[in-house]
Amino acid sequence: MFNPSGGSFEVVNSNVCQSCGSVTLHHEAASTSKSKGIMYAVLGWLFFAISLVFMPLLFGVGAVFMGVMTFLERNQVHGAILTFFAAIGLVLGSLFSFMVSGTFFI
Fold first, then answer.
1. Which of 26, 42, 61, 63 lies at a CB distance of 3.0 to 4.6 Å from 47, suitable for a disulfide?
2. How far is CA 84 from the centre of its chain?
3. What's the rounded Cα separation, in Å, for the pair 101 and 23?
């Protein structure tokens, strides 16, 4: 980026120190990308496990949503796997709930 007041070029998001010119090892954007979207994956697998035994319509839909968010925000492969298992958990939990209690809500 060109600085018109000083007449110098300023590098944005560079691995080179602007004051001394030495190469830096830590890039700010790289550290935040590893933890981005981890909560979607954790909650998705938790909701999947809960949907198998308790309130499958609520937690199953929540697990599918978390799988889609994991797909979009963190990792496409992990998100696709989570969404697939969440959909299976929604169906199996609903069938199990219907067989045990005769209703889809428990």
1. 63
2. 15
3. 65
